[in-house]
Amino acid sequence: DTDWRLGLIGRNGKGKTTFLNLLLKTAKSPLLKPGESYEYEGSITTSVLFDYFPYKVEERELDADVITIIERLQPDYELWRVCRELKLIRVDAEVLYRPYRTLSHGERTKVMLAVLFSREQYFLLIDEPTNHLDIETRAVVSDYLNRKNGFILVSHDRALLDACVDHVLVLERNQILVEKGNFSSWWENKMRRDQHEQSEND
C-alpha cells in the first residue's frame, strides 16, 4: 500500500539491501556499481516509481554548492518544494548555497531527505537515515518521517521504527511476515509466538 510507512526489519545479511535493489531495478540503482545487477527469477510488478535515500555524492563534488549537487541528482527538482521540506525538517534554506563539504552529517541527511520528499508520485526507500546522527538530530528526523507517508524504512534504530512506521515487513529465519504496527508491537507478538512454540516443544 503506497500510503504505508513500512519498516523493513531483519538481521544483517538477511537481504534487506538486496530487496531494495530489486525494487530499484527499473531505475539506476545507487546501490550498485555501473553495469552491476542482481539475477533473480520471477517478476516484479509495481504501480509506482521508487526513489532511494541516501543519494550518492561523489568526492569530487564536495566543494560544489548544495544546490548544484541537487541539480545533478534531480534535474527536475522544484526549488519551492525543496525549500518547503527544508523548513519542515528545520533547516534554513541558505544551506543550499553552501559548499556541500561544509555541511555536518546531520545537515546532509536533512537536505537529502528534503530533496527526496520534495518529489511527487514516488514511493521512497529510506536506508538507515539516522546513522551517525546525534540524539537531537535523530529526534528531528523521527518527527519529520512521522508526518510523512509512502515509504519503506530500513533501520536498526528501534526508537525510530516505533515512532515512524505503521506496518512492518520482517525477514525472519524461515518466513516473511507483514504486520500492522511498529517494531515493539511486532517484537511482543514474536516473543509470544516463541514462548508458545517453546511450550509446544516442551
Report on the architecture of this protein.
- Strand 3 (122-127), helix 5 (135-146) and strand 4 (151-154) form a beta-alpha-beta unit.
- Helix content is 38%, strand content 15%.
- Helix 3 crosses helix 4 (105-117).
- The N and C termini lie far apart (40 Å).
- A 6-stranded mixed β-sheet has the order 2-3-4-1-5-6, sandwiched between helices.
- The chain has helices spanning 16-23, 66-73, 79-88, 105-117, 135-146, 158-164, 183-201, and strands at 5-10, 49-53, 122-127, 151-154, 167-171, 176-180.
- The protein is an alpha/beta fold and 202 residues long.
- The protein is globular and about 65 Å long.
- The model has no long low-confidence stretch (mean pLDDT 89).
- It contains 7 helices and 6 strands.
SS strand fraction: 15-25%
H and E string: EHEHHHEHEHEEH
Instruction: Estimate the mean pLDDT confidence.
Output: 89
Alpha-carbon distance between the two ends: 40 Å
Widest β-sheet, arrangement of strands: 2-3-4-1-5-6
Tally of alpha and pi helices: 7
Taking the sheet with the most strands, its summary is:
6 strands, mixed
Helix/strand class:
alpha/beta
Radius of gyration: 18 Å
Shape: globular
- Helicity range: 25-40%
Q: What is the strand tally? A: 6
As residue ranges, the low-confidence spans are none
